């Protein structure tokens, strides 16, 4: 009798353990944010004009507006979480944020670990340098130095296409990457056109210009892998914002040009 009771108790304990340790499925995110009436969205705060800290010490920029728009259309409060390029995907995977709206490009490698919405803004990546430095092809990068942010698409492209004698200096965040170029630590800068444009305007003494286009890479919202309900809902929001001109207005305001022909 005691043995039966003991076995039953063990079975109950095991069942309870399974119940409380079961992981929350990605599909539960939309229901969860709706229930708590807030959504945590990762945004950049050091990557103007997509995300930066304004004079009032509050985040602003194109990505910030898109994040707020998504929260508004979902009918929940936007909890904006500053993220960096290296930590934004881990933050999403571990549940620290529910979405990434942080100048995120889509790659086959990233698509293995997270899902992507339709794109919400244009973007392209390039190599920038002084006007008197002649660079027309990747071969011309030989023997040069370039700063790039670790874990970015531009870092991957340089690693694959640039000659082995190109000295690639990787930095942890975009601010450090740009600073290395501005202060003359590197001859070249590999980054997005908008960040480069802002840096060039603030530092005319570098006489910098676009040297090579690395990739046309629109920005997407990142969603946890398999988070289908939230993915579909955000896609609906973005498609409607494209249709009514909201996203085109954001792009013209922050980037100086419209959406163009973004894929769906």
How would you sum up this structure, described in words?
It is a single chain. The chain is of the alpha/beta class. Helix content is 40%, strand content 27%. It has ten helices and 13 strands. Strands 5-1-6-13-7 form a five-stranded mixed sheet. Strand 3 and strand 4 form a beta hairpin. Helix 3 packs across helix 9. The N terminus is likely disordered.
Task: Show the helix and strand layout.
Layout: H1 2-21, H2 29-36, E1 38-43, E2 46-47, E3 51-53, E4 59-60, H3 62-74, E5 77-82, H4 88-93, E6 99-104, H5 108-111, E7 114-121, E8 124-130, E9 145-149, H6 153-161, E10 167-171, H7 174-182, E11 188-192, H8 193-202, E12 208-216, E13 219-224, H9 228-243, H10 246-255
Parallel strand pairs: 1-5, 1-6, 9-10, 9-11
Antiparallel strand pairs: 2-3, 3-4, 6-13, 7-13, 8-11, 8-12
> What is the tally of helical segments?
10
Q: Identify low-pLDDT runs.
A: 1-24
Strands, total number: 13
Q: What is the straight-line distance between the termini?
A: 66 Å
Q: Which value, in Å, is the CA radius of gyration? A: 22 Å
- Give the topology string: H per helix, E per strand: HHEEEEHEHEHEEEHEHEHEEHH
What amount of the residues lies in strands? Answer: 25-35%
Alpha-beta content class: alpha/beta
Q: Please bin the fraction of helical residues.
A: 25-40%
Q: Overall 3D geometry?
A: globular
Strand order of the largest sheet: 5-1-6-13-7
State mean pLDDT (0 to 100 scale).
89
Largest sheet: 5 strands, mixed
């Amino acid at each position: 009798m005691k043995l039966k009771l003991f076995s039953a108790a063990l079975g109950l304990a095991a069942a309870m353990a399974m119940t409380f340790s079961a992981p929350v499925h990605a599909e539960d995110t939309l229901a969860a944010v709706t229930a708590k009436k807030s959504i945590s969205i990762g945004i950049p705060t050091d990557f103007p004009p997509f995300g930066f800290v304004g004079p009032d010490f509050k985040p602003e920029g194109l990505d910030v507006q898109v994040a707020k728009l998504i929260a508004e259309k979902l009918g929940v409060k936007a909890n904006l979480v500053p993220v960096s390029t290296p930590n934004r995907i881990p933050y999403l995977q571990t549940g620290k944020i529910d979405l990434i709206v942080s100048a995120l490009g889509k790659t086959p490698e990233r698509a293995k670990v997270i899902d992507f919405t339709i794109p919400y803004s244009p973007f392209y990546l390039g190599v920038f340098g002084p006007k008197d430095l002649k660079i027309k092809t990747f071969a011309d990068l030989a023997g040069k130095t370039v700063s790039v942010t670790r874990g970015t698409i531009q870092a991957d492209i340089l690693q694959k296409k640039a000659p082995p004698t190109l000295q690639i200096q990787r930095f942890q965040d975009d601010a450090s990457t740009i600073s290395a170029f501005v202060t003359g630590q590197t001859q070249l800068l590999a980054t997005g056109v908008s960040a480069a444009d802002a840096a060039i305007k603030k530092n005319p003494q570098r006489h910098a210009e676009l040297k090579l286009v690395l990739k046309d890479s629109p920005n997407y919202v990142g969603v946890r892998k398999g988070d289908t309900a939230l993915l579909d809902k955000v896609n609906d929001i973005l498609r409607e914002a494209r249709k009514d001109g909201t996203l085109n207005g954001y792009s013209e305001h922050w980037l100086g040009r419209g959406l163009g022909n973004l894929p769906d």
